[in-house]
Specification:
With 206 residues, this protein is mainly alpha-helical. Helices cover 72% and strands 2% of the residues. A two-stranded antiparallel sheet has the order 1-2. Strand 1 and strand 2 form a beta hairpin. It starts with 15 loop residues before the first helix and ends with a helix.
């Protein structure tokens, strides 16, 4: 009576120990690949917190800060999906009361307030920038994507602002958009430069 023997398949070019290691390396690499982008989301969410605290208050209640720089960086480096996830993480942290918004503020009342639309608009901005940035390496296309993303954020936030403040859209633009345009031009130029540099590092190539 013939007995079946257990046969171990060995890679022809590897010793037995190396072949076993190779068989387990792929799943481990895949798990790392799945987790690493989420780690970067957390890192860029922390960058958002820092940028949001570098602010100059204005009478309109909408401060000049570097938060939009953090949005552009995260979207430009992480793309559509993870750029938006970064902003969702940041906003959720603020919604539960952690003081991550400008002026170390937090809570749902900030989002529900007149300037909350600009914060929610970060998600839309990240989506626009990330969608375009992930499909091109052109510096000019990246700058164009960032300009478009900022305009989308402004449009959404200003509509929110004028609705809650019961003012005209023109007045809303004068209070919440026009004073910020020169500063945002500098932020966009800086963000585009930093994204191009970061794309060349091992941090973004994993």
């Amino acid at each position: 009576m013939n007995k079946k023997k257990n046969v171990t398949t060995v890679h022809p070019n590897l010793p037995l120990s190396d072949s076993a290691s190779a068989s387990t390396a792929e799943p481990a690499k895949k798990r790392t690949g799945d987790i690493y982008p989420l780690v970067l989301c957390g890192v860029f969410a922390a960058v958002m917190v820092i940028c949001s605290q570098i602010a100059i208050p204005l009478p309109s209640g909408v401060p000049i800060n570097l938060a939009i720089l953090g949005v552009l960086l995260s979207a430009g480096c992480l793309g559509f999906r993870y750029g938006m996830i970064t902003q969702i993480i940041y906003i959720l942290l603020g919604c539960v009361g952690i003081p991550v918004f400008a002026g170390f503020s937090g809570g749902l009342h900030v989002i529900a307030g007149p300037t909350g639309g600009y914060i929610v608009g970060y998600i839309l901005c990240a989506g626009v920038v990330g969608f375009i940035a992930s499909r091109t390496r052109s510096s000019w296309a990246l700058v164009g994507a960032m300009i478009l993303g900022v305009l989308v954020c402004y449009a959404f936030g200003t509509l929110w602002y004028v609705h809650l403040m019961d003012i005209t859209f023109t007045v809303g633009l004068a209070q919440c958009v026009i004073p910020f345009l020169p500063f945002d031009a500098v932020k966009i130029a800086l963000a585009a430069l930093l994204v191009q540099r970061l794309r060349q590092t091992k941090l973004m190539k994993r």
